[in-house]
Amino acid sequence: LGAPARRTLLRAVIMGPPGSGKGTVSSRIVKHFALKHLSSGDLLRDNLQRRTEVGVIAKTYIDQGQLIPDDLMTRLMLNELKNLHRYHWLLDGFPRTVPQAEALDETCQIHTVINLDVPFETIKQRLTARWIHPGSGRVYNLEFNPPKDVGLDDITREPLVQRDDDKPETVTKRLKAYEAETKPVLDYYRKKGVLESFSGTETNKIWPLVHAFLQTKLPEVSQEESITPLWY
Ligand code: AMP
């Protein structure tokens, strides 16, 4: 990425529950606009892999499905953001708590929080769509590649099962936890007047809205130019 042309650099956050299409929307944003995308989950996984001190401490929390303590998480992210101060940026997965949002505010003003607002039932359908044939490991998805007969493996005709993670009870629990955790953060940004919610049941319908919104804030990357030439 070259140095951005505008003087005001975008400071944005993207939020959305698991299954909201946040990953897809984020990757499309990165493809269309010249900005740096910083994901707390990716940053943590990178630290885990490299066995940094932060990574070793973080692992104990992640393995238990717990959030990383605010001070550690904040230090990690703010430190990383120092390297990005000359770029437009979009945070993903951070801030996840009000203390994190407050700590971020002390360093810089957030202009926009993109909130993906997808109905609970839609998300639940997506996250519970995966069924597995335990004998072979064949994976089906009720939305993209459903079995010929509901609940049965195409080849052996044996029953399909769901992983614990994909069961409705587990998914509901996860979504409720996410909601309880992030609602205060959304409220925090709503009060500041920077929350922009995009609602819909399909990522392909939400994306054009996000795209149009960001076009008012950022220069767009020419799609032709961004393709690497064949001879490169
Ligand atoms: P994710 O990929 O966003 O689901 O993050 C994976 C894990 O990293 C989470 O389950 C948390 O344990 C941890 N994590 C990611 N972001 C944060 C954050 N902002 N605050 C605390 N923990 C986080």
UniProtKB/TrEMBL annotation:
<dbReference type="GO" id="GO:0046039">
    <property type="term" value="P:GTP metabolic process"/>
</dbReference>
<dbReference type="GO" id="GO:0006172">
    <property type="term" value="P:ADP biosynthetic process"/>
</dbReference>
<feature type="binding site">
    <location>
        <begin position="19"/>
        <end position="24"/>
    </location>
    <ligand>
        <name>GTP</name>
    </ligand>
</feature>
<dbReference type="GO" id="GO:0046899">
    <property type="term" value="F:nucleoside triphosphate adenylate kinase activity"/>
</dbReference>
<feature type="binding site">
    <location>
        <begin position="66"/>
        <end position="68"/>
    </location>
    <ligand>
        <name>AMP</name>
    </ligand>
</feature>
<dbReference type="GO" id="GO:0046033">
    <property type="term" value="P:AMP metabolic process"/>
</dbReference>
<dbReference type="InterPro" id="IPR000850">
    <property type="entry name" value="Adenylat/UMP-CMP_kin"/>
</dbReference>
<dbReference type="InterPro" id="IPR027417">
    <property type="entry name" value="P-loop_NTPase"/>
</dbReference>
<feature type="binding site">
    <location>
        <begin position="93"/>
        <end position="96"/>
    </location>
    <ligand>
        <name>AMP</name>
    </ligand>
</feature>
<dbReference type="InterPro" id="IPR033690">
    <property type="entry name" value="Adenylat_kinase_CS"/>
</dbReference>
<comment type="subunit">
    <text>Monomer.</text>
</comment>
<feature type="binding site">
    <location>
        <position position="100"/>
    </location>
    <ligand>
        <name>AMP</name>
    </ligand>
</feature>
<dbReference type="InterPro" id="IPR036193">
    <property type="entry name" value="ADK_active_lid_dom_sf"/>
</dbReference>
<comment type="similarity">
    <text>Belongs to the adenylate kinase family. AK3 subfamily.</text>
</comment>
<dbReference type="Pfam" id="PF05191">
    <property type="entry name" value="ADK_lid"/>
</dbReference>
<feature type="region of interest" description="NMPbind">
    <location>
        <begin position="39"/>
        <end position="68"/>
    </location>
</feature>
<dbReference type="GO" id="GO:0005759">
    <property type="term" value="C:mitochondrial matrix"/>
</dbReference>
<dbReference type="GO" id="GO:0004017">
    <property type="term" value="F:AMP kinase activity"/>
</dbReference>
<feature type="binding site">
    <location>
        <position position="203"/>
    </location>
    <ligand>
        <name>GTP</name>
    </ligand>
</feature>
<feature type="binding site">
    <location>
        <position position="130"/>
    </location>
    <ligand>
        <name>GTP</name>
    </ligand>
</feature>
<feature type="binding site">
    <location>
        <position position="40"/>
    </location>
    <ligand>
        <name>AMP</name>
    </ligand>
</feature>
<dbReference type="GO" id="GO:0046041">
    <property type="term" value="P:ITP metabolic process"/>
</dbReference>
<protein>
    <recommendedName>
        <fullName>GTP:AMP phosphotransferase AK3, mitochondrial</fullName>
        <ecNumber>2.7.4.10</ecNumber>
    </recommendedName>
</protein>
<feature type="binding site">
    <location>
        <position position="163"/>
    </location>
    <ligand>
        <name>AMP</name>
    </ligand>
</feature>
<dbReference type="InterPro" id="IPR007862">
    <property type="entry name" value="Adenylate_kinase_lid-dom"/>
</dbReference>
<dbReference type="GO" id="GO:0046051">
    <property type="term" value="P:UTP metabolic process"/>
</dbReference>
<dbReference type="InterPro" id="IPR028586">
    <property type="entry name" value="AK3/Ak4_mitochondrial"/>
</dbReference>
<feature type="binding site">
    <location>
        <begin position="139"/>
        <end position="140"/>
    </location>
    <ligand>
        <name>GTP</name>
    </ligand>
</feature>
<dbReference type="InterPro" id="IPR006259">
    <property type="entry name" value="Adenyl_kin_sub"/>
</dbReference>
<dbReference type="GO" id="GO:0005525">
    <property type="term" value="F:GTP binding"/>
</dbReference>
<feature type="domain" description="Adenylate kinase active site lid">
    <location>
        <begin position="130"/>
        <end position="165"/>
    </location>
</feature>
<feature type="binding site">
    <location>
        <position position="174"/>
    </location>
    <ligand>
        <name>AMP</name>
    </ligand>
</feature>
<feature type="region of interest" description="LID">
    <location>
        <begin position="129"/>
        <end position="166"/>
    </location>
</feature>
<dbReference type="GO" id="GO:0005524">
    <property type="term" value="F:ATP binding"/>
</dbReference>
<dbReference type="Pfam" id="PF00406">
    <property type="entry name" value="ADK"/>
</dbReference>
<keyword id="KW-0496">Mitochondrion</keyword>
<keyword id="KW-0418">Kinase</keyword>
<keyword id="KW-0547">Nucleotide-binding</keyword>
<feature type="binding site">
    <location>
        <position position="45"/>
    </location>
    <ligand>
        <name>AMP</name>
    </ligand>
</feature>
<keyword id="KW-0342">GTP-binding</keyword>
<keyword id="KW-0808">Transferase</keyword>
<comment type="function">
    <text>Involved in maintaining the homeostasis of cellular nucleotides by catalyzing the interconversion of nucleoside phosphates. Has GTP:AMP phosphotransferase and ITP:AMP phosphotransferase activities.</text>
</comment>
